Amino acid sequence: MMRHEEKDILVSTGCDMFIKGWDMAKEPEDGFVDSEWSIKGHNEYIFGLTKINDELYATSSHDKTVKVWKMGKNAERYVLSGHSGPVWSVIRLQDQMKLASASAEGRIFIWDYEAEEATLRIKAHSNQINCIIPYKKTQIMSCGDDGLVKISDWETGETLKEVVLNAHSELW
Fold this sequence. Notes:
The protein has strands at 2-4, 9-13, 18-23, 37-40, 46-51, 56-61, 65-70, 76-81, 87-92, 98-103, 107-112, 117-123, 129-134, 139-144, 148-153, 159-164. With 172 residues, the chain is mostly beta strands.
């Protein structure tokens, strides 16, 4: 889920493969709010959702793609392909022209989404990466089924730190 602050719109995704926009300013009828718009987003489950700016957002899917959309429109702007497994997570990097995605093959892709190309592929984990988050200026933190948390530089691809958390066998 994500929220568009200016318009008080909640955007959600799910296993039904749809992206939906909800007007949170509307009063619910019988406790329910109907979606304002609905887009068939991917061919398989949608796992990731991130806001790029006030007009664009990105989704990631089991169909091995990341897609960039115009807010509230059935307007797929860019399709980012190249992962060989389901894409579990997508985030916007501090440079608003770049996205990062993480997948079941253990790699993080850094995308120039307007050029529709991966500018860097980082082999961060031995198997599935479940989540990535922005860390510091040019760094990404990732966790995966290998039980590791890693910090990688998204400009160079270098692994800067690797930590085993002594509490989980798989990290989400």
